[in-house]
């Protein structure tokens, strides 16, 4: 019994001695059946710097595992040098298992298969003098590259403290773009951190409607950081408004206005476009598309951070349904248009009046027409006639005149140009209520007569759109 105890004590003492002599790494290597350098990289010496890399492939593909191990090796080299060397050395390392510029060679390789997974370990050694010289030579470049990132980042932080959130966001993106393009080893982590900061600024903004009057076409909003009565009001933050307008042909297109918030964080839009009427949606966005596109050009449109920022901008938009009508919508007015030939002769055709009345009716304005003739050959005579016959039942008269300015042949077609104007009168006293000013309209046709007719028709459409704008 005593003999067995002595043996057990001896074995324990022997194990302690072995561990003290060989170290934990050696014991772990012995237990795992791998070389010691796989467990612990050799210590650098006065002449050598050591690097290791490890790569695996679940299908047991040796080439794939070796490339992954070389990737890990380049990761360590990049960290040591302070800048990314993957693109610079990847091919050379794959082809020659060495890097001439660093005086580096892969000296050892170990392969192990466990549960069908092939793992390759690589050990490389570089000449300490050569690689240290390269580090010193690149130190100034590293500092310059770091400064390109650090400077806008510092400015972004300062802007945020001043509650200048737009410039904070812009400068974070500028710093992020520099980090993305930087050869520094830590550039990826810097890029991700800076983008997180930029998104944090964007997410912290609150966009809220204030005293908007959608019936009158007046839209107001405020930008703050956070919510609540004491939330900081964000000054000089750009906002874009998008709204539909109907052109003279009755087609709808999107129009834009841009403003920046004032000292109270407020932004206001009151579209003065003559064709802003009817029903639709008035949308306000943070106007950040230009700086986001600049970043996208650098990092790619499918970058996850760019995608997230675009989503946040869309999610924070304000949409206001509106319904704006003319003051005379639903009522009946009097309308007349006088068309003249190039030599000043009054035409019997009424193309401009026909299209004027058609366009007015699309906006809910109906018209009693007065067709011109020899007795009603001027605007003053038409107005006099309208007052005498309609003043008791109608309040507004739209009267215009237009003449042929030119007709030219272009190829196998003719192009006609019409010039003129239109005015809105009060039938009560004959006073001028509003006027369009002179404008022109063109038309194209296979003959000169067809071109003139098309131009007069277009003139009536434009006149209607301008008149409706005056009546809003």
Reconstruct the topology from this structure.
Layout: H1 2-32, H2 36-39, E1 48-57, H3 62-81, H4 86-96, E2 98-99, E3 104-114, E4 117-127, H5 128-161, H6 165-181, H7 187-203, E5 205-209, E6 219-225, E7 238-246, E8 252-260, E9 266-269, E10 278-286, H8 289-299, H9 304-315, E11 318-324, E12 332-340, H10 351-362, E13 366-369, H11 379-390, E14 396-410, E15 413-426, E16 432-435, E17 439-445, H12 448-471
Parallel strand pairs: 12-13, 12-14
Antiparallel strand pairs: 1-4, 2-3, 3-4, 5-6, 6-9, 7-8, 7-10, 10-11, 14-15, 15-16, 15-17
Helix pairs in contact: 3-4, 5-6, 6-7, 6-8, 7-9, 10-12
Describe the structure.
The chain is 43% helix and 29% strand. By secondary structure, the protein is an alpha+beta fold. Strands 12, 13, 14, 15, 16 and 17 form a 6-stranded mixed sheet that branches. A 4-stranded antiparallel sheet has the order 1-4-3-2. The protein is elongated and about 135 Å long. The mean pLDDT is 87.
List key phrases describing it.
472 residues; alpha+beta; elongated
